[in-house]
């Protein structure tokens, strides 16, 4: 399976400068993919989907779910896993403002929406974000509805199913009763935690409009070692 680093190196070999070969799908890499797609008479969207990967590397066509661009925002999320709002305050604040905006000091304000926004803004710069993305409930207006699957944005209620308070994070996997979610402000840090399924809001599983159309289905996993989060205030 090809990685973003493989794509960057191949683009550089072909004369399309992707910027630093760092394995991160940033603006320079996206621009290089677009230049390659244009020269190769492919759809110019900056996404290394099945047709683009075959043009770059040859060989058999892979499925969309096998592309490194299937959900780069999830890879971005895992690169920051473990950062704590107090212990790693400086590093976390630097990350949260790296997309050009932030809700504030994560040790003082809820920041789950800020985390989701930053991951998507850095890896999917052309994606339209919801108004006030720092409020978890506003992610119900993001992208399009999808079945819960790897990388989906999951929007939960907190306190009351009818209330405005909530939580937002990314689907990693699930068991019979809980989703396994990587998110910010979970135990005051970026972690993978269990969240009971009945907290998912109606229409609360979302997929970016500019991403590959992936229907990978549920990922079933043992969540017995994960901490359950019930109040992400």
Structure explained in plain terms:
- The protein is α+β, with helices and mostly antiparallel strands and 233 residues long.
- It has two domains: 4-66, Muramoyl-pentapeptide Carboxypeptidase, domain 1; 72-207, endopeptidase fold (from Nostoc punctiforme), CATH 3.90.1720.
- It contains six helices and six strands.
- The protein has helices at residues 4-13, 27-39, 50-57, 72-79, 89-96, 112-123; strands spanning 144-145, 153-157, 166-174, 178-186, 189-196, 200-207.
- The protein has a six-stranded antiparallel beta sheet with strand order 1-6-2-3-4-5.
- A hairpin with a 3-residue loop joins strand 3 (166-174) and strand 4.
- It is globular.
- The protein starts with a helix and ends in a 26-residue tail after the last strand.
- The model has no long low-confidence stretch (mean pLDDT 95).
What's the layout of helices and strands?
Elements: H1 4-13, H2 27-39, H3 50-57, H4 72-79, H5 89-96, H6 112-123, E1 144-145, E2 153-157, E3 166-174, E4 178-186, E5 189-196, E6 200-207
Antiparallel strand pairs: 1-6, 2-3, 2-6, 3-4, 4-5
Domain Peptidoglycan binding-like: 6-56
InterPro entries: Peptidoglycan-bd-like, PGBD-like_sf, PGBDSf
Organism: Rhizobium daejeonense
């Amino acid at each position: 399976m090809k990685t973003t680093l493989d794509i960057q190196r191949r683009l550089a070999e072909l004369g399309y400068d992707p910027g630093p070969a760092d394995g991160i799908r940033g603006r320079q890499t996206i621009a290089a993919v677009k230049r390659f797609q244009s020269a190769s008479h492919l759809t110019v969207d900056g996404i290394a989907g099945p047709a683009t990967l075959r043009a770059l590397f040859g060989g058999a066509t892979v499925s969309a779910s096998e592309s490194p661009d299937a959900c780069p925002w999830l890879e971005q999320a895992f690169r920051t896993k473990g950062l704590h709002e107090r212990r790693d305050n400086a590093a976390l604040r630097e990350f949260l403002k790296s997309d050009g905006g932030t809700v504030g000091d994560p040790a003082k304000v809820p920041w789950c929406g800020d985390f989701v926004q930053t991951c998507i803004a850095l890896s999917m710069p052309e994606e339209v974000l919801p108004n006030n993305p720092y409020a978890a409930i506003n992610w119900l207006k993001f992208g399009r509805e999808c079945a819960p699957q790897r990388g989906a944005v999951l929007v939960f209620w907190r306190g009351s199913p009818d209330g405005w308070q909530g939580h937002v994070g990314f689907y990693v996997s699930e068991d019979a009763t809980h989703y396994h979610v990587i998110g910010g402000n979970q135990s005051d840090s970026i972690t993978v935690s269990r969240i009971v399924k009945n907290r998912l809001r109606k229409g609360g599983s979302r997929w970016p409009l500019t991403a590959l159309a992936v229907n990978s289905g549920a990922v079933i996993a043992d969540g017995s070692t994960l901490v359950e989060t019930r109040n992400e205030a």
